[in-house]
Amino acid sequence: MKIEPDRFLRDLHALREFGASGVGKGVIRPAYSDADIAARKWLAGRMEEAGLRVHFDPVGNLFGLADGPSILLGSHSDSQPEGGWLDGALGVIAGLEVARAAQEAGGPSISVVSFQDEEGRFGVTTGSAIWSGQIDLQTADALEDDKGNSFAEARSQMAELAGDFVDPAQFKGYVELHIEQGPALDSSGEQIGVVSDIVGIRDMRITFNGQQNHAGTTPMHLRQDAFQALSAFNAAIADRFANVVTPSTVWTIGHVALHPNASSIVPGRAVFSMQWRDSDPQRLARMEQIIRATAAEIADQMGLSVDFGTLLGLEPEAMDPTLQAALEAGAEAVSPGKWRIMPSGALHDATNVARLMPVAMLFVPSINGISHAFSEDTKEADLVAGLEVLARATAFM
Ligand code: GLV
Ligand code: MN
Ligand code: MN
User: Fold this and answer.
1) 32 CA from centroid of ligand 1 (Å)
2) Counting ligands in written order, which one lies closest to the CA of residue 81?
3) What pLDDT is stored for residue 352 in this prediction?
4) Which of 290, 314, 340, 396 is most buried, most CB within 10 Å of its CB?
């Protein structure tokens, strides 16, 4: 099998044109946006040209299938609302190049996938979560994005392309190449990270309901200000987590929506996402207790009420030792002495796919550790090194 780095880089740049942000190499290609659907149709064409059988499933996961039992390579091609050009795209295009080279060489049998909504417009890694049975389709259909659009409406935009769900029994294993999205490889000067395990995650919407009122006439001590509750909550959980977390535990407040969000109105409602990640399920559970208790306590003290949305999450997942060893051998051949074994703090479709088959992952460096931002980038030599490790490793699978 002979991979062609130039062809791989050309395809990677071509995918970047779909939803190009005009700021650096960034992209705006959230799941089911026009740019995302156009990119998936383009990818389907490239898969077909490579000799693969194109198949969209009911949620827009796109497969390029090779005959017989095959190794599945890939990642996702949707992006964050402000995303980088490599997050997900790298694994899909590298998978395409290895599958194409394998078709040209007459083997091995390699299929490709681009999962839908990995970035969680609707849930957490939605497309692969549904395919793997982590979440059922009916439950997923009721999920809403932050504008109130349902997953059912969004996926109906791809209905004319949709076939059945793909039978996972035809795959011997799944391997995902991704950018690291953190600073470890870039700061150590190493070229490849072979992933040992992926952290677990919890994500929950929280709402503080106060009393909307006039900002000039309402005395401070009589306010039920939803923003003040959120602000107090944020400070309090940092304190209360202190004895529970490790240096690798992370938590993030996002999607903050203040109602009505005006300078002369005491806010009556604050809705936000609370997300936390760790490699220990017991610590994730302890953090959940702290979050619920702290929010309830603050609401009580300040005369508000609090509502908790559905708790979404994925468990921590270890990589398959045999596939991981194949990646380690590939890394040592391509970048001798310049690779390491490391955990993933970012989530990946591989976590869900591990319910169906053995999985493994590898990383290439992110310049300055930046990702989920338009400025995300990786040196071309590192992108190609990742492709080479992936191609070599498939020979041992
Ligand atoms: C996926 O991009 C994540 O949020 O880790
Ligand atoms: Mn990703
Ligand atoms: Mn991402």
Assistant:
1) 18
2) 3
3) 97
4) 314
Residues lining ion ligand 3 (Cβ < 5 A) are 87
**218-234: burial string, b at 16+ Cβ within 10 Å, e else:** beeeebbbbbbbbebbe
pLDDT digits (tens, 9 = 90+) for 337-372: 999 999 999 999 999 999 999 999 999 999 999 999
CA 85/CA 21 separation, integer angstroms = 10
Give the integer Cα–Cα distance in Å for 218 and 93: 58
d(CA 308, CA 334): 49
pLDDT of residue 152: 98
pTM value is 0.91
| Token code pair at residue 184 | 């470890």
CB 385 within 8 A of CB 200: no
Find the 97 Cα to ligand 3 centroid distance in Å. 21
Residue 74: per-residue pLDDT: 98
Give the per-residue pLDDT at 245.
97
Q: Please state, in angstroms and rounded to a whole number, the distance separating the CA atoms of residues 62 and 39.
A: 11
Nearest to 229 by CA among 284, 309, 146, 307: 307
DSSP 3-state of 63: strand
Residues of the chain with pLDDT below 70 are: none
What is the 8-class DSSP label of residue 342? Answer: E
As given in the structure block, the two tokens for residue 333 are: 């051949």
Mutational test site, ligand 1, from 82, 347, 361, 371, max ligand atoms within 8 Å of CB: 347
Question: pLDDT digit string (tens) for 92-103?
Answer: 999 999 999 999
Tokens of 159: 């209905």
| pLDDT at residue 47, rounded to an integer | 98
Place of tokens 């470890």: 184
Q: What is the Å distance from ligand 3's center to 221 Cα?
A: 43
Ligand 1, CB cutoff 6 Å, lining residues: 119, 346-347
Distance CA 218, CA 258 (A): 18
Q: How far away, in angstroms, is 84 Cα from ligand 1 center?
A: 12
Nearest 5°: phi and psi at 171?
-105, 135
User: Residue 146: its pLDDT value, please?
Assistant: 87
How many angstroms separate the alpha carbon of residue 230 from the centre of ligand 2?
Answer: 29
- 348 CA: nearest ligand 1 atom: 1
Neighbours of 148 (CB within 10 A): 6
